[in-house]
Design a protein that fits this description.
The protein has helices spanning about 5-15, 30-40, 55-60, 60-65, 85-100, 115-125, 140, 150-155, 160, 165-190, 195-205, 215-220, 225-235, 265-270, 280, 285-305, 345-355, 380-390, and strands spanning about 20-25, 45-50, 75, 105-110, 130, 210, 240-245, 260-265, 310-315, 320-325, 330-335, 360-365, 370, 375-380. By secondary structure, it is α/β, with parallel strands linked by helices. It has two domains: about 5-130, P-loop containing nucleotide triphosphate hydrolases (Rossmann fold); about 140-390, no CATH class. α12 (about 215-220) crosses α13 (about 225-235).
Length: about 400
């Protein structure tokens, strides 16, 4: 079994707060992680899957049932199916606090839904911590002997990554995409047309890493421009798409102000484009931008919440693929090249000079660290991710 870095963080948060909300896409490993925590939790644990009628029945009198579990960790999976329970949790948590029990009471699992975030934050303010769980990253896959090429092609969803062969992996991703469109869109956004969301998702895949042109997409889909915002908001909220914001400080340059959009998991990207093998990917026009998105997603995960990710681009052509800001100041500039002989572009050097960034890296598929021109270094993604996590 592959060890998840999130497990340690969840355990720490449970020792500090009464409730933890763990958000992530379906099939990303939330339930597996929760059951691992439950297996040796002091005082025992209770697991409720709220998609099962029998478990939902237990919460008909939620207050009485949950109070009877005092001293145990109560795990509630698919918590968005029981939104009324948040009011009950607030009363139980407050009563337990008065009796000295201040941590490790509830672990709530759900897909990243705006309604869920709003309900829990309004009701459990000051009583809950939020954590995201993403697909497997390079720092989790590499110790398990999984090659980065496999992680890139198949993505980080465990059932896709660990499938017997590429065909089974792609079949799983096709089913995943279909189930999201048929089930989750209808659940979280019943007024939005699933077919149009699916077309948008595929369009984003074809334009992976491009600056968002809402007017062009709206015209292609036959919808109003503001509607595209709502559709993309849903995909971002479900952690399926990343909207990478442009850095917008005042440095006297004309900056690009529209975000870039990426399908977050490279395997889902390839599933949307029907790319089954590494050879299929290497022969497709999306190859370079797929590698860019794969690296960006892994490096953002490694950087954690201490650094805020952006991209940087001026109208004159200066550009940084991934800019990490810390404490309000640009700290690290990263360019991504799928080449065994990488060389930074002049626009990258100009952008770094604009922002006075000394830490300049060019991520490439190799493992050797190589000094480059313009004060940059070539570095492998795993090495840079390891350093960012420290």
């Amino acid at each position: 079994m592959i060890s998840r870095q999130t497990e340690t963080i969840v355990r720490q948060k449970l020792l500090q707060t009464p409730a933890v909300v763990l958000l992530g896409p379906r099939q990303v490993g939330k339930t597996t992680l929760a059951k691992q925590i439950a297996a040796n939790w002091p005082g025992g644990a209770v697991y409720l899957d709220l998609e099962r009628p029998a478990d939902r029945l237990r919460l008909q009198d939620a207050d009485a049932y949950l109070r009877a579990q005092r001293g145990k960790l109560v795990i509630m999976d698919e918590i968005h199916r029981a939104p009324d329970v948040f009011e009950v949790l607030r009363g139980i948590i407050d009563d337990n606090r008065q009796e000295g029990l201040r941590s490790g009471q509830f672990l709530l699992l759900g897909s990243a839904a705006l309604d869920l975030m709003r309900q829990s934050s309004e009701t459990l303010a000051g009583r809950v911590a939020y954590l995201d769980i993403a697909p497997l990253n390079i720092l989790e896959a590499a110790p398990a002997g999984i090659k980065d090429a496999d992680l890139w092609v198949r993505g980080g969803f465990p059932d896709s990554l660990l499938a017997t062969d590429d065909t089974q992996s792609l079949d799983w991703r096709r089913d995943f995409i279909r189930s999201y469109l048929e089930r989750d869109v209808a659940m979280f956004a019943p007024r939005l047309p699933a077919e149009t969301i699916g077309r948008l998702w595929t369009m984003i895949a074809h334009q992976q890493g491009s600056v968002l042109n809402q007017a062009r997409i709206a015209s292609a889909l036959g919808v109003a421009n503001p509607t595209i915002d709502r559709y993309i908001d849903l995909l971002v909220d479900l952690q399926l798409v990343r909207r990478l914001r442009p850095w917008g400080g005042n440095i006297g340059k004309r900056l690009v102000k529209s975000p870039k959009v990426y399908v977050r998991d490279s395997g889902i990207l390839h599933g949307l484009l029907e790319l089954e093998t590494l050879n299929d990917l290497l022969g497709h026009p999306v190859c370079g931008l797929s590698f860019e998105g794969h690296c960006i997603e892994n490096l953002i995960q490694a950087a954690g919440s201490r650094r805020i990710p952006y991209f940087y681009r001026t109208q004159a052509g200066a550009e940084i693929d991934l800019l990490l800001e810390k404490g309000g100041s640009p700290e690290i500039a990263i360019e991504i090249k799928r080449s065994t002989a990488p060389s930074p572009e002049r626009g990258f050097a100009l952008a770094c000079d604009d922002l006075k960034i000394e830490q300049r890296y060019v991520v490439y598929p190799g493992t050797e660290r190589i000094p480059l021109r313009h004060g940059a270094q070539a570095i492998g993604m795993q090495e840079l991710a390891t350093w960012l996590q420290q």
